[in-house]
Prior knowledge:
- Helix content is 75%, strand content 0%.
- It is mainly alpha-helical.
Amino acid sequence: xxxxxxxxxxxxxxxxxxxxxxxxxxxxxxxxxxxxxxxxxxxxxxxxxxxxxxxxxxxxxxxxxxxxxxxxxxxxxxxxxxxxxxxxxxxxxxxxxxxxxxxxxxxxxxxxxxxxxxxxxxxxxxxxxxxxxxxxxxxxxxxxxxxxxxxxxxxxx
Length: 157
């Protein structure tokens, strides 16, 4: 009887993928992304409470930069980290990035400006606003989970 040998195949990762993964797991990168996540969690409420409306455009552009950073991290992690693409953390990061789009005031105003204005539309907007409030709470929970992920990542490096 012929014995079957176990064949173990090691996948050799290119050096650029290793460097990219080390960059993403660097404590500077993790720290910056944690600051971006804290900004995403709390700054829109702080902006409404404490800043004049003249600062809205600046805050909107900062939010756009944060979205770009989220998406850049998402793409770089998908390319460099095996098993990340379509994983739980991939979807978590994607939802966190997309959830910041309603925080951009000029986009929201452009969307609301395209809506019809009559009493039925006002009633629908009120109903939609209560649903949006609930959705925002869920999105904040997702962003908080992201902070836990970043904390665990920082602790391992």
